[in-house]
Amino acid sequence: MAPILEVRDLNVTFALHKREIHAVAGFDLTLEKGETLAVVGESGSGKTQAFLAMMGLLARNGAATGSVLFEGADLLKLSPSDLDRYRGRDIAMIFQDPMTSLNPSLRIGTQLKEVLVRHRGMSRDQALKRSIEMLERVGIPEPARRARAYPHELSGGMRQRVMIAMALLCEPRVLIADEPTTALDVTVQAQMLDLFRGLTRDFGTALVIITHDLGVVAGLADRMMVMYAGRPVEVGPVDDLFYDPRHPYTFGLLQSTPHVERVGGRLVPIVGMPPSLAELPPGCAFNPRCPFVMEVCLRERPLLVPRVRGRPTACFYERELTVGAAIAEVAKLDPETVPT
Questions:
Q1: In angstroms, rounded to a whole number, what is the distance separating the alpha carbons of residues 205 and 202?
Q2: 55, 1, 3, 62: which is closest to 29 by C-alpha?
Q3: Could you tell me how far CA 180 lies from the centroid of its own chain?
Q4: Domain that residue 333 falls in
Q5: Tens digit of each residue's pLDDT (9 = 90 or more) over 259-294
Q6: Is 332 exposed, middle or buried (0-12, 13-18, 19+ CB in 10 A)?
Q7: Is position 192 within any domain?
Q8: Is this model's pTM higher than 0.70 or not?
Q9: What is the DSSP letter of 87?
């Protein structure tokens, strides 16, 4: 069976002050029906821009090359009007900032029902009824009253749930969720994750979760893609990456995340800051922060290819990554970060 979404060599650039900034480079992705993929990485790693490019939603100074195949159609080659036939109906995106995504001058119910009127051909009364039902499904109390409210009358968490409801209205075949649980409390977050699981299970929706929360990844995703400085650096099943990370950046993310099994111990941080996309270091972009850096890392950029146990990893270091070795190397980079 052909994948529902196939991305090959996606590159995203931005023209900025007579310079070209490469925000995403060499991005490949295959997404199967009913699969949940988590995309993780620090802010500025290119996660969101990659998927905005697929949706045709880059800023005016942005440009994308490569191919994004959905049911045989290359989305990057479609005109805006042709792309509109897919956006919102077959491919939907939940944006990170609900306040800027919702129209402040229109009531919530009006914005929701327009999706169904446009993409499903419902009457406005039918669309409003369905919209209120969806607001209730995502945990909004008194949904009929909230449908009459304006965005500024709702809390940040409620606005986020409205965006989730809007994305789910047409039961899309591919759903891209950018930090969908950031503004939600723990109880509502659990409800949203259950809603996502039901969507993939009952309708075969392929789900992409862009997140910093590794707890969400562990509880929801089938596969995980780790991005750094605009490029994927490791891809594989979630359990494999959590229990046997092969890229030092993946290893660092996991070691710097609180875990119940490490109660009382200090975290092992990733030293330094992500590089500027305008001035990437030669060789591997992670080499200034990597505790396992080798001479070859300073000269050559590793490709994302199957390495240890066949997992695609963009790293020359193929020995086991251990906390002891990482602590020793981190001490050389920044002695103050060494756990006691």
A1: 8
A2: 3
A3: 9
A4: 244-337
A5: 656 555 666 778 889 999 988 999 999 999 998 999
A6: exposed
A7: no
A8: yes
A9: B
